[in-house]
Fold:
Amino acid sequence: MVLQAALEGYGLRHRATVHNIANVDTPGFQRIDVSFEDQLKRAVDRMPSRGSMFRGVDMDHRRDNPLNRVAYKISLDQSSPVRADGSNVSIDREMAILSQNAAKVRDLTELMIRNYSTIKSAIRGRAG
Structure:
């Protein structure tokens, strides 16, 4: 499911950011970054039955599901400015990333809850 794949990526980014924060005072430490949004978008674009709220539900366990091929890329950040101690971790930047990431996870979780509530209502409507 698309929401699950996105939550996995944001979870990985959360762990990477927390790792960066834990090493903010480690001389020579290079921050790590996680990217996946472009890959996820391409996977969604390759999925059948576009526009369906339940996109991917029928493909979840199939080998040819594009979501199974989303690559969560973990890389060293070579572009951030390096401090005198050789580290490129900025606590302000990491805290901002952590906050943005948490907001995205919250929004996706709320969307997932709404989707399951809709499904639950539909099932109850049929049973009633």
